[in-house]
Amino acid sequence: MAETSKPLQNAAPSKPSARLLFVKSARYLTPNMIRITLTGDELEGFPENHEGANCKLVFPECQRDPVAFRGYFADGMPKKGTFPVRTYTVRHYRPETQELDIDFVAHGDEGPATRWAQQAKPGDFLMFRGPGPVKVPKFYARYYIVVADMSALPVAAATLEAMPREAKGIAVFEIMSEEDKQHIDLPDGIDVHWIVHSDPHVPSHAALEFIQSRDWPEGPIQTCIAGEHGMVRDFKQFLLKEKQVPVRDTYISGYWKIGLVEDQHQIMKRQEAATS
C-alpha cells in the first residue's frame, strides 16, 4: 500500500500554548461516554489534522472566574498541584467554527476530570495545553490492528478515520455495555468487533485472545493499541516479541492502570521506560 499522510500531522507545536477554552455543549454519546465541545477565541491558530493527538487539560476546580484562572497561566503553568491536570485526546477540531471535541469516559468516580465532565454546562471553562503529535502519522501497511478500551476509543477512532479508504485490518473495542458502541467513519476493509467488559477495573484478556485466535496476516502490519496498562503490556509481549512486529510500526501505549491515578501511572511508565 502506498504511504499516505496528512499535512501537519508530525508538526506539533514545539511549545504548546495554554488556551482558555469554554464549554459550548456537553452531551452523552453513549451511557458511558461524554462529549464536551469547547470553543473560545484562543483556539485561533490551533493546528489542523491533529485528531488523535494527546493534550493536557487543566481543571479549575473551585475557581469560578475565568479571568482569574487565566492569570495563573500568564507566565506558563502554575505551580504543580495548584490545579488538577489530566491527559486526553483531541477527537475533532472544526476550524471553520473554532470548535474542539474531547470525549470523557463517565466512569462514575470522584476524579477531577470525570467530575468536571459530568457536571459541565455551557460557559464552564478549562485550560487546554497542546496538542502533541498524532500517534500514527503515516499509513503504509498491508494490514492494521487497532485495539482500545473506552479510555482509548478517541485515539483509535481518530486513527481509523484518518486511514486510507482502501485500508484493511481489524479493530477490537472493549466497551462497558452494548449501548456504548459508537459510529466510526472507518474504511470498509476494517473488520470491527465490540467486546462488552462491564467492569474495566477487572483485568481483561478478551481483546488479546480474540486477536490471537485469528489467522496472522501478511505484513507489513501497523498497530494502534491503547488502554489499560495490563492489556497493553500483554499486547507488547505478543506483538513485539512473539510476532516480531517492528517497534517503528507500532503505537502501543498504556493510558491508565487499575488502582492508580494518572500521576502515579505516569511515574510508573517513566520508571519502566528507564529500565527497558
TrEMBL record:
InterPro entries associated with the record: FAD-bd_FR_type, FNR_nucleotide-bd, Riboflavin_synthase-like_b-brl, SIP_FAD-bd, SIP_fam, SIP_rossman_dom
CDD domains the record matches: siderophore_interacting (cd06193)
Coiled-coil spans are: none
Q: Which Gene3D superfamilies does the record cross-reference, listed alphabetically?
A: Nucleotide-binding domain of ferredoxin-NADP reductase (FNR) module, Translation factors
**FAD-binding FR-type domain segment(s):** 16-138
Give the Gene Ontology MF terms in alphabetical order: oxidoreductase activity
Annotated Pfam families = FAD_binding_9 (PF08021), SIP (PF04954)
Protein family membership: Belongs to the SIP oxidoreductase family.
What name does this protein carry? NADPH-dependent ferric siderophore reductase
Query: Whose protein is this, by species?
Result: Pseudovibrio exalbescens
